[in-house]
Amino acid sequence: MADTPQAVIDERVKDVSPWRKALIRPELGGIIGTVAVFTFFALLAHDSGMFNAQGILNWSTVSAQFMIIAVGACLLMIAGEFDLSVGSMIGFAGMMIAIFGVTLGWPMWIAILVTFAICMAFGALNGVIVVRTGLPSFIVTLATLFILRGFTIFIPQTLERKTIIGGIREAAEGDWLAALFGGTIGRPFFQWLGDAGVIGVFDRGNRAGEPVVNGVPMLIIWAFVLIVFGHILLTRTRFGNWIFAAGGDAQAARYAGVPVDRVKILMFVFTAFCATVFATCQVMEFGSAGADRGLLKEFEAIIAVVIGGALLTGGYGSVIGAALGALIFGVVQQGLFFANVESSLFRVFLGVILLLAVILNTYIRRIITGER
Amino acid sequence: MADTPQAVIDERVKDVSPWRKALIRPELGGIIGTVAVFTFFALLAHDSGMFNAQGILNWSTVSAQFMIIAVGACLLMIAGEFDLSVGSMIGFAGMMIAIFGVTLGWPMWIAILVTFAICMAFGALNGVIVVRTGLPSFIVTLATLFILRGFTIFIPQTLERKTIIGGIREAAEGDWLAALFGGTIGRPFFQWLGDAGVIGVFDRGNRAGEPVVNGVPMLIIWAFVLIVFGHILLTRTRFGNWIFAAGGDAQAARYAGVPVDRVKILMFVFTAFCATVFATCQVMEFGSAGADRGLLKEFEAIIAVVIGGALLTGGYGSVIGAALGALIFGVVQQGLFFANVESSLFRVFLGVILLLAVILNTYIRRIITGER
Amino acid sequence: QAIDDDLSYIMVSHAPDSDAWWNTIKNALNLAGEQMGVNVEYRNPPTGDLADMARIIEQAAASGPDGIITTVADYDVLAGPIRSAVDQGIDVIIMNSGTPEQVRELGALMFVGQPEYDAGLAAGQRAKGDGVESFVCVNHKISNPVIADRCRGFADGLGIELGSSMIDSGEDPAEIKNRVMAYLNTNPDTDAILTLGPTSANPTIQAVEEMGLAGDIYFGTFDLGAEIVQAIKDGTIQWGIDQQPFLQAYLPVVVLANYDRYGVLPGNNVNSGPGFVTADNIDKVEELAGEFR
Amino acid sequence: MEPTVKPIVSMKDIEKHFGSVIALNGVSVDILPGECHCLLGDNGAGKSTFIKTMSGVHRPTSGEIFFEGRPMSFADPRDAIAAGIATVYQDLAMIPLMSVSRNFFMGNEPIRRIAGLPFFDHDLANRVTMEEMQSMGINLRGPDQAVGTLSGGERQTVAIARAVYFGAKVLILDEPTSALGVRQTSNVLATIDKVRKKGIAVVFITHNVRHAMAVGDRFTVLNRGQTLGTAERGEITPEELQDMMAGGQEMATLEGSLGGTV
Amino acid sequence: MEPTVKPIVSMKDIEKHFGSVIALNGVSVDILPGECHCLLGDNGAGKSTFIKTMSGVHRPTSGEIFFEGRPMSFADPRDAIAAGIATVYQDLAMIPLMSVSRNFFMGNEPIRRIAGLPFFDHDLANRVTMEEMQSMGINLRGPDQAVGTLSGGERQTVAIARAVYFGAKVLILDEPTSALGVRQTSNVLATIDKVRKKGIAVVFITHNVRHAMAVGDRFTVLNRGQTLGTAERGEITPEELQDMMAGGQEMATLEGSLGGTV
Ligand SMILES: Nc1ncnc2c1ncn2[C@@H]1O[C@H](COP(=O)(O)OP(=O)(O)OP(=O)(O)O)[C@@H](O)[C@H]1O
Ligand SMILES: Nc1ncnc2c1ncn2[C@@H]1O[C@H](COP(=O)(O)OP(=O)(O)OP(=O)(O)O)[C@@H](O)[C@H]1O
Ligand SMILES: [Mg+2]
Ligand SMILES: [Mg+2]
Q1: Per residue in B105-162, pLDDT tens?
Q2: Is residue E186 part of a domain?
Q3: The organism sits in which domain of life (chains A, B) (predicted)?
């Protein structure tokens, strides 16, 4: 086996041009879409401020939100399941933080940690029910969607007689853990950029002289960290291989010794984790938790993931692709505002992009995997 | 083959008691659920007016609404697909009728017929895309969900500068087709019941002396007709057999000569038809079309169907079951109001019922079909 | 509270479960119920679908209460059920939205509230007086026809076309914030912002703060909440239109109970709003914002 | 192979490519009425692909099909069924969630008109199903029993009974006995014999030489997409057939190469 | 069957019921180190079920399993793999959407620590995969080629190469040759021979008698959930084996019953 002539391998590899090989990858659809979307808006809205510092921060923040939940949804979808309760989980998590931190007055870091624990437990419950009963995750998580949303409205209603609980920012003042989810970083650098004239400064109002962008929001940092984590987990670790295997063919994976049930449950937990990160950043930034937060976010996450090239039935996809899908989603959504397009048409655009993306991705996937 | 002793057959049939055989059927879960739900509310809300004429009419009407869309969703689900665009289709259809009939001032029957044609064309488009591209119907109809909702907001916004269009009842006055969707029938009978004191009568206003329930709404008639039609189509016709076959195993059905693609597309069209019936009844009854009509109805339809024992992945289910699922849904929703339960808990109930129902149904289905 | 006559009233709103503003209504309703010694119930369509609301009114009528308190969010949809209830002998009071003519036509006892369009109009007129010539209306529930009336009224009060001034902001706070920022970036000559409730106001406050426009841009909002009150104090928001939801829920219960017990009835409708809450009169509001204010 | 009888189906030079896979590389076979034509071959030899081109599932990449002497081109299985070619597929064309009688009549539902409207004649369907299954030696609990509750062998038998019942001119059986026990196998082979005697042509795919020898009139062996020729009963011994199927000479070389362990 | 060598795996009186289906009805087999033990039998005889109880997929309904003399009870396939029982399943344990090298190392991913954290060692995985596949005679375009683009035979070969590479004490092959062409079959049989000579026990399931005879040391025939006994090489002729597999006597009766057509 050691005397295998390396030449033979090289000879075969030449069959496919390196160019084509580099091109044909799961993220290709996402990359093409991203380029198309940016070109489109560069032409349509180049003079609208969409591509100055403030504009970039604008669509980056929206995209980062989508990315955070898309990473969880992506890994879960690759593991062969999906989760419709993400949106309700976001509302629920925010409300729990508000109730623990404001209504009950616990230190914010305890409130956040306990909320993470509760939400991840719900995620695990989703997973355990799906794995144990063999029911489709669509149904199980649809039930969770309703149950969590019900609690999100019922609990504050009963405890506080309101469905928006504010004062979270004040309660989180100076908390070490809360600081990880709210605020911005890199302020001095942006101040310097502003002074140097690279980015604009406010020329009126009470912040005149400050740069228009005064730092990178923690939300974007979280999105970045989760994408890197998800990408490395998926492509560079043993567990990542198990995720692919569990979604590709659970039975075959089980035979090969992959602990499929554990993988799926953990992915449900991770999805819940991402939803809770989203919720925590949101309540820290906006200072209040509302019972209607996160509506329809589950669909937005799934759409971003599917635009990014993942297969709805599992076993195939890429975190980078999902992130690009989220970027496309965010840029299109905000770009239409910059381009001054009637905003209710956004949904029509979204539907059309989804269809086109999924057809393109199917084509690319068939080339890669030799599906019939 | 003619000399087969009939006795032998009879002997075998005895293996399973006729009682058990009559019991173990796809609708069993729905029947058990219905009995349970009625018992529950009879105990909890017997003195709340839930079971007087008006109360019965109330939850019957709500259930009938669910039934209309559940019939379409049920047949489509049995044919192996599902449609997330039902809710948007309802909003869209109502808006189209309003725009044609009120804004453009067409005769109402033309407005209705054109709307049916447009909506069924959208249904067919869903079907054609699913069948041709082989994409999951989840994704394709999710795109349609957004596209239709976008148009439902955009069109009246552009034409009329508002998202609600009224005056439909006036425009439909005396229209022969509109009469099929609005109003009630059986008025003389109910008048008689009222006079006889069986049901309450209005005691003041310009309708004093009339019975509080003055007929059966056309909505309930439609629900009844669609259920009967769907049930007969599914169980008593050749086409019904094809629906089961297409959903059970599309490939095997194709080999056996079943025109699977046609069946699936027709079922998408039928689902669109049901959604349009729903929308037409609604605008005729309420006289206005709003852009928010039908939100989340797709989930409600799917939930009713799944509670009624159908299999999310196709090939198994019953229209009667779906109708019972819709009845359970309607009775629980309205019954909680009668029983004066905090309304936000409705979602929690719904989620729990969904989970329990689907587990029960899975168990029953395994007995019937010998699934492993 | 020895009165033991077991009166029960049902309030049916048009708000989805999660709409925060309606909490004040619920709280005031419960308070009035306690104070008057009557049973009160609050019901609403879970998704805010007005057709579902019509069913709930029918259902409420079927359960035979002594009175129903409801809104006329869409006259076409709700007229039938409300009229049936009235004809059935149930006393009905219209609150929040509707017009005096509609109330009369329906045979309801009275109206307590603030017609949405009129409130918008009044706000628009006030803004016009303050020199506003263009505005953006942040609509967080584009598909809900009721609250869009506020934008239309505002535009008419300013005497300008609504045009594309109303933006569909979605309900996610970050999206609202960033869409407002995007709009203001592309339309830098916008004079005023109108938000339609706490859902859209809170992120918008942050948007103008972040853009350094706080206090600089004319900012008015409907309905109050803790953040809005704070922003009024800070000078970020010029005024909040307070339709005093407390009264909209509290008064009907009191009126109905007294009507049923003693046959007394005020002779007129009550306009609970629009009251403009500004930095000058904010203090009392502050304490109870979101709960009773 | 004297052309005394006119072939009912005649396949000429059939090629079938799936993308880069050449599943059939020029196969010619004649099927005569009333004969049992056995198609043998290793796994992957192309047997299933070959009969699928015959029954309208696949269109051949090149080559011609003659049915009763006329050139034929089936657009889909429905056409082939209508023309009289019934097929029992290897990957059972049975739907486990459906009842036996619904499966039995799938695609050929009997119609009874009530008030002019066509309804599925369940009574007829149920009666026929029970009778046919009994005559195949399978006792159903009832015609509405789901196919999923049957054993693999019973399912196979339903599929065969169905094809036989709809009395085609050509009956194609793709490894009908592969999931069957010995007793059920004997039933199927007896049925094949019966059908053949009615003058119906049977194409019987198997890789069990004994089963083939038991009922076959002629034997065609496929190997890697090509035919190794057709032999008539008596011209060939079971051992020779077995050798051809397993690759004959190549196998011998292989056994040699294992270095005397054989 | 003299107990000179201690069996590495010893299955005693294994029964396995699936609901009402009795798939195994008391099967006892010993596997000796370094032998190639062929398991033969008709379709549905219970071969796959039997080896699945050996590899931890199914728990036997009753009966005992001894591994290296100690009683063993595998909770899931992972345990069996850890103990040294590698299996190539009939329903290929390969995931078509994944690359060859990911499939090759599925469940046994090589780890390289970077900064103390365990990462999947792709370089090692790719190199090993290319080498192993070459040594099995399969030229990949690259280690990241998806298994879905391989032919059925190539996939089977990957599965075997994988099992061989992870060098178990017992290697179970469930019909490894069923999707292979003759040349690839010869490769597999040669591999079995190689593996056996390393002292590894091979359990080789097939229903092709020639393949069994080519490499087998002992032969166990299953029939309808029961064993018809184990024979050693030389004690039995291919024809006898073939007879046993096809049901022997029962088949003879059947041929008779077809009424002299045989
Ligand atoms: N739809 C398809 N797409 C691509 N290749 C296919 C397709 N169907 C069959 N093949 C390939 O064609 C070849 C012949 O397959 P076929 O199923 O006809 O063999 P067979 O003789 O029936 O084998 P078996 O005895 O296992 O049933 C195989 O290599 C198979 O992988
Ligand atoms: N999970 C299961 N549930 C129920 N019955 C099963 C299950 N697995 C196998 N069986 C049944 O057990 C019996 C033996 O099947 P098994 O797959 O072991 O046969 P086999 O000898 O491997 O046949 P083949 O040569 O076709 O692979 C069959 O009747 C089969 O239907
Ligand atoms: Mg085949
Ligand atoms: Mg097997």
Answers
A1: 999 999 999 999 999 999 999 999 999 999 999 999 999 999 999 999 889 888 887 7
A2: yes
A3: Bacteria
Residue B16 lies in a domain: no
Touching status, chains D and C (3+ beta-carbon pairs under 8 Å): no
pLDDT higher than 70, residue E184: no
On whether the CB atoms of residues A347 and A15 are closer than 8 A, the answer is no
Structure tokens at E77: 């396939």
Check pocket membership of E90 for ligand 2, CB cut-off 6 A. yes
How many C-beta atoms lie closer than 10 Å to residue C1's C-beta?
A: 8
Phi, psi at D85, each rounded to 5°: -110, 110
So what's the ipTM on this one? 0.89
Q: Please check whether residue D43 touches E, CB under 8 A.
A: yes
Q: How far apart are CA C162 and CA B162, in angstroms?
A: 10
pLDDT, one tens digit per residue, over C113-128 is 887 888 889 899 999 9
Q: Which domain holds residue D85?
A: 9-94+167-235
Identify the nearest ligand to the CA of D17 by its number: 1
pLDDT digits (tens, 9 = 90+) for A150-206: 999 889 888 877 778 888 888 998 899 999 998 888 888 888 888 887 777 777 666
Greater confidence, D167 or D223? D223
Domain assignment present for residue B5? The answer is no
C-alpha span between C147 and C142 (Å, rounded): 8
Q: Is pLDDT of E249 > 80?
A: no
Token couple for D14: 């059939």
Radius of gyration of chain C from Cα atoms? 19
pLDDT digits (tens, 9 = 90+) for B270-290: 999 999 999 999 999 888 898
**From the candidates D42, D188, D228, D241, which should be mutated to test the interface with E, based on the most E CB atoms within 10 A?**
D42
Which ligand has the shortest distance to the CA of E153? 1
What is the predicted pLDDT for the residue at E183? 64
What is the pLDDT, as a whole number, of residue D207? 73
Task: Give the amino acid at E133.
Answer: M
Query: What is the domain range of residue B256?
Result: 28-38+50-197+212-362
A10, part of any domain: no
pLDDT at A250 over 70: yes
User: Which H or E element spans position B118?
Assistant: helix B108-133
Q: Does residue E129 lie in a domain region?
A: no
**Index of the ligand 1 atom closest to the CA of residue D207:** 25
Domains held by chain B: number: 1
Residues D12 and D5: their CA atoms lie apart, in Å, by: 17
Distance CA C192, CA B60 (A): 49
Within a domain: residue D221?
yes
Residue E116 domain flag:
no
Instruction: For residues A116-129, give the mean pLDDT.
Output: 97
Cα separation, B14 vs C177, in Å, equals 71
Tokens of C105: 């036509």
Residue-wise over D124-134: b if at least 16 C-beta within 10 A, else e?
A: ebbebbbbbbb
Chain A interface disruption, residue of C181, C213, C216, C230, most A CBs within 10 A: C181
CATH number at residue A337: 1.10.3470
Q: Is the CB of D225 under 6 A from ligand 1?
A: no
Is A3 inside any structural domain?
Answer: no
Range B237-246 average pLDDT: 95
**Mean pLDDT, residues B305-319 taken together:** 93
Task: State how far the Cα of B51 lies from the Cα of B40, in Å rounded to an integer.
Answer: 13
- Is E120 within 8 Å of A236 (Cβ atoms)? yes
Q: Is B78 on the interface with D (CB under 8 A)?
A: no
Which CATH number belongs to the domain containing residue E217 in this structure? Answer: 3.40.50.300
Regarding predicted confidence, which is higher, D181 or B281?
Answer: B281
The number of domains in chain D is 1
Checking if the pLDDT of A8 tops 90, the result is no
Residue A217: asked if its preceding bond is cis (omega within 30°), the reply is: no
DSSP state of B342: -
Beta bridge partners of E10: E30, E66
